[in-house]
Design goal:
Number of strands: 13
Largest sheet: 8 strands, parallel, barrel
Number of helices: 10
Shape: globular
Helix content: 40-55%
Distance between the termini: 7 Å
Structural class: alpha/beta
């Protein structure tokens, strides 16, 4: 499969996310649209839009950006519990129709301020059981009519979502991305996800997880097309290797000054985040250029580990992940608009050219 290269658009209420440019209009429609237009102009497929209580509503932002663009594909992060399955299936089907098949969905099961929007959930097993049921029911609502479902968490009777999802170039419905590293999360991914997203772990660790998920898919009798794999990571690119590492080290030094003493970020972290933070014990730089130090000073999620180097260095590393079976990449760095353009001009052409040769 020809790889997809997406970016990240900061769907934030507060300016300055991860070092982004601070301005009063940082989350205005015009500002976010400029980022989406830059993504289109430089050949990116689209961008991930994060979700969580305290952020602007992700689906609304994605809809507005889809209306102002022609090829930009929003990867819309959503949470079971914030949405009911039938409501979400109908909203996504409508946006997919209006955007002519540009919707992608990232299902998130991580912690959130559930009480703020009237939701609640039990332990990890219950949380992932609900997610699994949500994903299966949404897919049924997109592909079947008169759906009746009486499950542990959700119920619908005679439900037909309109407009119907149109199959486009072998794509039966918006793809469902999913993340998570716990055994419970991996069982959901193995049976229900279209794309499993990984954080920036070393190549050997990613290879091990891919093998485990493939085995789980077979063991659990997955009845969907084969699971695909993606990587969500920060890419810090400069003209030369030396310039990139100087920029990375300066940024981490600033993070250290702002954070003060090293802190234990693992206490309340999810399993996947704990895996990333644990990489620091194996070295500051793993593989060729996977920088683990940012996680010591508060870098979370995709900002915990960075691929650092020239465009050639970072392209080589991403192609090594691609050789393991990664076909979906979600990259980012700040300032977001500036880096969309920089990496769109320097990194993305190298990746596209290599993919043409490989595929």
């Amino acid at each position: 499969m020809t790889p997809d290269y997406l970016w990240y658009i900061p769907n934030q209420a507060i300016a300055g996310h991860r070092g982004d440019t601070v301005s009063a209009d940082h989350n205005s429609l015009d500002t976010l649209t400029r980022q989406a237009w830059a993504l289109e102009r430089h050949g990116w497929t689209g961008a991930l839009l994060g979700a969580g209580w305290g952020r602007p509503d992700t689906f609304t932002v994605a809809t507005a950006l889809a209306a102002r663009t022609t090829s930009f594909e929003p990867l819309i992060a959503i949470r079971p519990g914030y949405w009911r399955p039938a409501n979400f299936a109908a909203a996504a089907a409508t946006l997919d129709h209006l955007s002519e098949g540009r919707v992608r969905v990232n299902i998130v099961s991580g912690q959130d301020d559930l009480a703020a929007y009237g939701d609640s959930e039990g332990d990890q097993a219950q949380r992932y059981a609900r997610t699994k049921e949500f994903m299966r029911l949404v897919r049924r609502l997109w592909s079947e009519e008169h759906v009746t479902h009486d499950g542990e968490h959700f119920h619908v009777t005679g439900s037909t979502v309109l407009p119907r999802i149109e199959t486009r170039q072998g794509r039966p419905h918006p793809p469902l991305y999913f993340g998570g590293a716990s055994p419970a999360a991996e069982r959901v991914a193995a049976t229900e996800a279209d794309v499993q997203l990984f954080w920036g772990e070393p190549l050997a660790d990613i290879a091990e997880r891919i093998d485990r998920l493939k085995t789980l898919s077979a063991t659990l009798d997955r009845d969907l097309p084969p699971l695909r794999f993606g990587l969500r990571i920060t890419t810090l690119v400069r003209d030369t290797t030396e310039q990139a590492w100087a920029a990375a080290e300066a940024r981490v030094a600033q993070m250290a000054r702002e954070a003060g003493e090293d802190q234990d970020h693992r206490r309340f972290a999810a399993v996947g985040q704990q895996r990333l933070l644990g990489l620091q014990q194996r070295g500051e730089v793993l593989d060729d250029n996977l920088y683990t130090t940012p996680g010591k000073f508060g870098g979370g999620g995709a900002a915990t580990t960075w691929l650092v180097g020239s465009a050639q260095d970072v392209a080589r590393s991403l192609l090594n992940y691609q050789a393991l079976g990664i076909s979906h990449f979600v990259l980012s760095d700040t300032p977001y608009l500036q880096e969309i353009e920089r990496q769109g001009q320097s990194l993305l052409p190298l990746l596209r050219q290599a993919s043409l040769v490989l595929f």
